[in-house]
Queue: 3 jobs
Job 1
Amino acid sequence: MLRSLTRGRALLQHSRRGIPQVWIVAAQHRWASNLPINTVVLFVPQQEAWVVERMGRFHKILDPGLNFLIPIVDRIRYVQSLKEIVIDIPEQSAVSLDNVTLNIDGVLYLRIMDPYKASYGVEDPEYAVTQLAQTTMRSELGKLSLDSVFREREVLNMNMVTQINQAADTWGIRCLRYEIKDIHVPPKVKEAMQMQVEAERKKRATVLESEGAREAEINIAEGKKQSRILASEATKAETINQAAGEANAVIVQAKAKAQSIHMLSEVLSQQCGSQAASLSVAEQYVSAFNNLAKQSNTILLPANTGDVTSMVSQAMGIYGALTKPEAMKEKLTMDAAYPNKSQLVSENQIFHSET
């Protein structure tokens, strides 16, 4: 048995010599053991599926571990790897929606889910999936503009996976994910994109600068507004306080004047009050006469300016004229209370007789 295994390995190496190295690298997962020879007793590695044909027809798929086959009748036709396979999608050119030529490449991650379909559904599953990924990428890029390609790479990757799985389901292959590696644009388009980016940055800088200037002007205006409001409130409070002070002063002066008048009336009602009033009027007249012609050169004087006695008599006459209505008012009040004067006299006599 060891001799047969050694001979099988020699034949395997000899068969690989005639195959191009590039094709071997591209299909290394599919041809993991490169069709082992039937040695009756076979050991299948983990995560591999060996498809066995009996007399030219599909017989079974060998599970990992120990397996037995009939020599000559059974033959291992395909060896499929059940591991996740990574395929490098070569760079290809595509035209976007806005007629920009792009060179794009990517990486495809897939796994064989059904070894039977992968063996008999398509001649070379990996090559078929690679071609499908390229054509699907061209189709998806034709639906997007240049800006959308850079902005929606995740959406583009998801659409790629969905389209590949729909077509590769009959091959027993499932695409796990697709990732875009590089996107190359023409030099002129790249320069235009750089200019666009610079213009956008300048625009943002200008907008930010203008917003800063606007905020500064608003802050200055708000400061002036607040200062004016505070100044007006201070002026208002000052005016109110000044008016209140003046009002209080007027009230105090009025009270003082009322008290002085009251006191003067009491003094005048006493004995010798008229003589005191005459003396006060004479003093005021002399004082006013001393101040004549001090403020202005043009003055009007009565004919008897030097006669103090006549001036005092005139002032007292005015005072007497003013006091006469009060005396008349008191008399009228007494007449209204006692219309019959004889009754008032009899009452007084009765009062005196009783006393």
Job 2
Amino acid sequence: MATMIMEYLSPHVIFRLGILAGNEYPNISEHLSSFLAQSLFFTSDLYLSSVAKHELVQRFSSNVLRHLTEQVIFTEPYQRDCPNNRHTPLLDDIVEQIRSDVALKMEVSKLKHQFMCEKDALLHGDAHTGSMLITREETKVFDSEFACFGPMGFEIGLLVGNMLIGYFSQPGHNNGKEYGIWILDQIIDIWNKFTTKFSTLWANNRNAGNDYALVETEEERKLVEQDYLKKVFHDTIRFSGAVIIRRILGIAHVQDFEFIEEVEARASCERDALEFAIYLLKEGKEKETIEQVLLPLTN
């Protein structure tokens, strides 16, 4: 016997469409940072015993959609002859630049290897702005059919990359420069609140789990935490770059750009996004804070 529970959500809207309409959601950074911190921490080795973690990994190891993620984000967009690919014709030059950039493709290959091999925590697997129903007071994350274990930075990078897509699409939706700044502020708040909440969960559960069992003092734990979150941060930034490229060069384009009817305007927005994605992939690991990463957009 199985039970299905359904909830009628009204007047919720898809977060992506809310961004296209220029709507502000005052609680979005609070809600999404809590979702990320709790879902990632409590399914990681920092909280779970080794036995419990391995059992949970096995439960999600047969999700065949994982291969689809590997294919459409890290492989196909960089192949010239893939039938699933398409892009705005005015982008031919930058598309060829990306597909010819050996250093860039090496970074993407490293990310693919991380996604395939690392099992940091249980991921929603598709937590982008199209998988969230929101109001000013409430946020619901849905469509978890891609759930799998993987690197924490992939989960956060999916969200950041899609929010950046929303930012770069704004000139085509005429919501004003101030709204673009609001989107960037939410990205900053989500990351900073995530790290604060994740750190608090770790401190409050320092005797749980099986990871870092040799750490004896709180001072040592904080040093480990700093190093741990630094890796998650750099992974987040680089994964977000790959997510942006996928949505413009590969399959499954998004409304942020597709709803811009004027081809030249759409191409201009997409070009800016692709240039920033290249920067994220090639220079993101040199940055220390989310504010530094977004500085080229705020100057």
Job 3
Amino acid sequence: MSEESASKHYDFNKKYSPIGDKNVWVEFTALARDYKAVNLGQGFPDYDSVKYLNEKVLECAKESSNIFHQYTRSPGHLRLANAIASCYGKLTGREINPLNEVLVTSGAYGSLFNAISSFMSENDEIIIIEPFFDCYAPMSVIAGGKCVFVPLKPKSDKDVTTSADWSWDTNELESAFNSKTKLILINTPNNPLGKIYTREELQQIADLCIKHNTLCISDEVYEHITYDREHIRISTLPGMWERTITVGSAGKAFSSTGAKLGWTVGPKELIRLCQSVHNNSIYCCPTFIQEVIARCFELELSRLDKDECYFRSISAELKPKRDRLAKLLIDAGLKPVIPEGGYFMLADISKVAPNFHSDQTECKDSKFVKYLIKEKGLATIPNTAFYSDEHKIIGENFIRFCFFKDEKTLEKAAEILKNLHID
């Protein structure tokens, strides 16, 4: 009788083996925690930005409704689905059906996973614009797809540049499309760069999608955080609604990353496919937090065109923090890339880290970030985490800072940066 060790089953299955168990957030969050570093790494506010969020939580709790503690609709708590449909209807200028054109998910991660898993078949290709949020490629590989990466590249080497100075090579983008291209995944405003795609850039993508009959996943979680350019939704361009799903997030819309609620908005034919994956994996998201976020949406809908609407005021709240961090980085010898949107800022470390070099095991930005955490007590994120292996050389001279932080946190970071003498 065979008595083989159970350890023979301890390896990843063939879908996950190319991905492994390394994750930038797990690694660097733990490092920041272990060294008690000032955390400008992870993207979340460390203060109450949405003043009424706790009030809505207490409001729901005081109602003592048993229904809030039970299963709700799989595609989304109806009150929340209605609110999302109303909001995006106004933002896109079209009527959106809450029953079949909205899907509430477990964060934007859930939306992305549902879409990629349901749209892609074995050997389909997905175009991913770099830099990209790090989960895009693993999800695509798990779905059996082939990733085709098109990088944004800096077009200026001035001491201070903006995210608008980064663009793709038109020929490179066009050549990425072929008969196997099923999807293109874009992120605007972009994390980590902060770039907001122009109408011309989006139109170029739209034209290629229509020409090659390609679907588009548009990750727009930072849609309301804009400074120097208007956010344009690719789904509103001619011929794109029927081939686009848009991803949103409560973590970004209401600065509540712990809510872990996201949503997918798009034509019913595509939402149906996403919902099938959702039904057979997550099934439904927590009812209570959906009720809370629904009430937050309803409040903002009542003042959507007014300055006090959080979807408008958050940019005014964060712009001074952005500008302050940029000055601190310049004074410390780094070259910031001023973001047009979002709450992250890349900074070129070439001048302050001449003794750090990439090798076969680790990129220079990763080495430098570990140095900052361990020796200086400041946590950031290496930019190469947002690039494919073939294009990490583009990102290795940059690290990512989050400026959505309390003034006390930024002040602590300022003291470290003022004394940033690299040993």
